[in-house]
Amino acid sequence: MVDHPDLRVDQSRQVSRNTWQDVYYIAANTNYATAIQSIIDNRLPGLTYNFQSTPMKTPKIVLGTQLGNDPWQDAQDMATAIGFQLYFDAAGCARCARCRTRRPGRACGRSPTRRTRRSRSWTGR
């Protein structure tokens, strides 16, 4: 990220827009944090990272099997699968850390919005 506040660039968008042009392989038994970092670094090299450690290992993963797939979404999906949240902080550092209030496989944060029968209004409860 550029230091001047008016010139900040959204790195997640850059990773996302640098879609897969070739198949990208992640070997079985690769640490998830290492695998996620390798995806991001492959699409946008030279970033800084602050990832929480995890003992979880990947199965063999093949990404980019369809031309134009979104590598940022692939990295997000991998983080969600192990109960982590992946994002760039205000300084442009890629961060990946365990969500405090969720289980693996579900997105961090509030529960999905749904409509209640009684009030017929939208709620996050």
Characteristics:
Phage tail protein beta-alpha-beta fold, 3-stranded mixed β-sheet, 125 residues, disordered N terminus, alpha+beta, 3 helices
For the record, the count of structural domains works out to 1
Shape estimate: globular
Which CATH class is shown? Answer: Alpha Beta
Taken in chain order, the helices and strands follow as HEHEEHEEEE
How many helices? The count is 3
Helix content: 10-25%
Describe what you observe in this structure.
- The chain is of the alpha+beta class and 125 residues long.
- The chain is 24% helix and 18% strand.
- It has 3 helices and 7 strands; from the N terminus they run αβαββαββββ.
- The protein has helices spanning 11-17, 32-43, 71-81; strands at 24-26, 49-51, 61-63, 84-88, 94-98, 114-115, 122-123.
- Helix 2 (32-43) runs antiparallel to helix 3 (71-81).
- The model is unreliable at 1-7 and 110-125 (pLDDT under 50).
Give the structure's gist in a few sentences:
This protein is of the alpha+beta class and about 120 residues long. It has helices at about 10-15, 30-45, 70-80; strands at about 25, 50, 60-65, 85-90, 95-100, 115, 120-125. It has one domain (about 5-125): Phage tail protein beta-alpha-beta fold (3-Layer(bab) Sandwich), CATH 3.55.50.
